[in-house]
Known about the structure:
Arc Repressor Mutant, subunit A, 5-stranded mixed sheet, binds zinc ion, Nucleotidyltransferase, domain 5, globular, alpha/beta, about 400 residues, about 40% helix
Amino acid sequence: MKKNDTEQIRIANRKLIINYVRINGPVARVDIGRALNLSPATITQITAELQKDGRILEISSEQESGAARGRPRILIDLAPDASSVLVVKLAINELRILLGDHKGNVVTEAVYPLQTRELNAEQLTGTLLTAITGFIKKLARRRRPKAVCVVVQGAVNGVTGEILWSPVLKERNIPLRQVIEEQIKLPTTVINDANCLAIGIRQLPAYQDLNDLVVVMLGHGLGMGCFINGVLYQGPSGGAGELGHLNYMPNGAQCLCGKRGCVEAYLGDYALFRDARMLLPFAAEDELHPTEQSMQALVDLAEAGNGELVDMFHRAGVALGYALAGVIGILRPAKIIISGPGVRSYKYLEPGVDAGLTSALVPVLSAGTEIESVALGGDQLIFGAISLALQALD
Ligand SMILES: [Zn+2]
């Protein structure tokens, strides 16, 4: 083996160990080796290096249960203050900036209301830069971030860091990473929110061993993050996984992307709210951006026995079932996790999902994939963003 290869393996193992401890720490060295299938010598060498750099701490010892003399068991964890990163989350009419520590916790955050759809590209990047600079200036020197992760709803070129299209913005093709890296001088990643949620969910102990996993994010729109062989698939030019804009009905309902009949136009919050307003007299609000309270009110009405809304959710579920049939037919992942704020109505979507899947795919093809709905949202998405920014430093 060439020296270069050995070094590459050491770097990869180091990243694996850091990531494992970030998710599972505090943890014993022996358990890291077992979980990652690495030798005790490798674990000892790499953790000693990390400890010397101040990146991990021997944070606690506990009495080993059943040990004859109660020998203390040394656990290690990431030193929370060893590094800080910034997460910038751009949503409709709201910018959130958070500081994450080396362990993946949120240290502090600020929310800035802004009319995202009224800003042109220059105004948007200018506003972001001002907010980021102001946020960093208020931090103690030891807390200054070393990397940035920008999370955006919509299609993103994960390779160039360009926002291709976002329903929260009026302009397309905004070279956000380039602008931030030039002005803030920090390594920057730009990622779509569904991909970020998928990263966060796969960090959970229950899912970290699933190498072929699809996370479908229901909410304002319909997004997808897809792990193939343990790697998030974004496509050679980024932007993969735009499940919401798969065509469900040629020339069907109007989608925010500009086309008609996309799955999202039957299933996104805005689509459900638009349809519900045709059925029931709701107070006027921004139809394209219904609030969480409005969306929950629809579920509550279905819960109270409103048959029209139950039928509406069923129809939306069928659209999702067809979309999932496409995903399963092409990828056959071990598991599809349905998550995001839209799972609030999954109880009413699910019968339609089953009907759509049964109609679209023969059972022999759909049998290998388990579908699970999990009410995970913002926190897991933010953890995904922090860990992604940290990975640039690991
Ligand atoms: Zn669309």
